Amino acid sequence: MNQQRESAGEEFLLQHCLRQIEQHLDWGDSRFWSNRDFTELSDRILDKTGVSLSPTTLKRVWGRLQYSSRPSLSTLDTLANFLDYDHWRAYKLTAKPIFKSTATPTGAPIKVDKSKTESSSNYRLVIGLGLLGAILGFTGIWWFSPAVANEVESLQAADYHFNFRTLAEGLPNTVIFDYDASAAPVDSVFIQQSWDDSRRKQVSREGHQHAAIYYKPGFFLAKLLVDSTIVQERELYIRSEDWSCIVEQRPIPVYFPKEVTHADGLLQLPPAAIEEQGLSLKPQPPVVTFSKVPSLSQPLYSDHFRLKTRLRHDYRDGAAICQYARLLILLKDGVFIIPLAQAGCVADLNLYLPGRQFAGHSNDLSGFGLDVQEWVDLEIEVVDNRVVIYVANHLAFSASLLEDPKEIIGIRYQFEGTGSVQSLAIWGKDEANPVWEDNFGFIAAE
User: Fold this and answer.
1) Handedness of CA 183, 184, 189, 193 (dihedral sign)
2) Helix/strand/coil for 376
3) 227-248: per-residue pLDDT in tens?
4) At what angle do helices 73-82 and 2-25 cross, to 10 degrees?
5) In contact, 311 and 379? CB cutoff 8 Å
6) Could you read off the pLDDT of 357-395 as tens digits, one per residue?
7) d(Cα 106, Cα 45) in Å, to the nearest integer?
8) Taking the model in full, what pTM does it have?
């Protein structure tokens, strides 16, 4: 019975939290919020907390999309952060006067004395929560019977099997997941390809295989979930020993062969090659991505390395006026994202370091603004978890890393429009010999 009341109390507090956010935003009744409103809220949450909750996730939390799971703890923590609380637990402690429960031995009936003001108040609260539960149960939003909720909370990883095998080399690559979730107390069983919950698919509780396509190389932490509880995780690498070049689009990106992207000693994708595929550069330019996740001769780690690269943005027409470019250093379950743009557009940049995010709206990222049409030398050096970033041979930013060291597994360049890369080199602790070097056949003039 205590667990039942605790579950109801969590739902009550969540609804109270959402109402507080609505009051803070002052956008009117959330039932009439548009898609743009949820996108704006997603952006505001990212700016304030450094955590991205997608518009789809927010719609589920607000009950605008039917979904059988309750929000994850990380989602609750982020909502609490947005209201200036350290985490969801802190919010719950502060909000205790709103939902005040009395200790009752397990299995004992709840005694209500209507003659006392406090007991009468608790009685009304229990009735109100029962009504709320009935409404949520009717709409199918995050609600289970208490018995099922208890079973979900007590899931044991040993009761579930989850493994995978890849079918090909290179990209795209299909992965076959073998699973056994027959022990699940509910039908809501999911396989999620990575951290991105939009890559989550419901599978049969009685089934044993699920196939999924990976379109980009990288490290992925695939998950088997029962409801919103992760019961098994598997580390999955999709390798690319050569550079892959794609134009981003869903559901399937557009791939370009090496003979198009490797020319004149450069890694590049000319605008004409994009248009030849029937893709338009206007009004909104596409995102061009170059990625490589090779098998390195020796490991590189995020707490001690040096990287130098030279890149250039090659398109500035129309909505590409800001010439956004990004270097991503891909980690095992993490990433560095180093942004570049024309100087007048740095307010919209976001710099990501492992465990930290710095938004241009609230941090001085002016060092990342320059004429990106010219060749730009970018250098990142990390020694003992202290990162220093140089742009065009000038100090642009420095900060400490907050996460434990992680293995560097790949590099990705992104250009809004298109761009070129002339050279790349990465050193580990041996500063005389780079672990990874690529000049794409470029020969400097003597």
Assistant:
1) negative
2) strand
3) 888 999 999 999 999 999 999 9
4) 40
5) no
6) 899 999 999 999 998 889 999 999 999 989 999 999 999
7) 39
8) 0.68
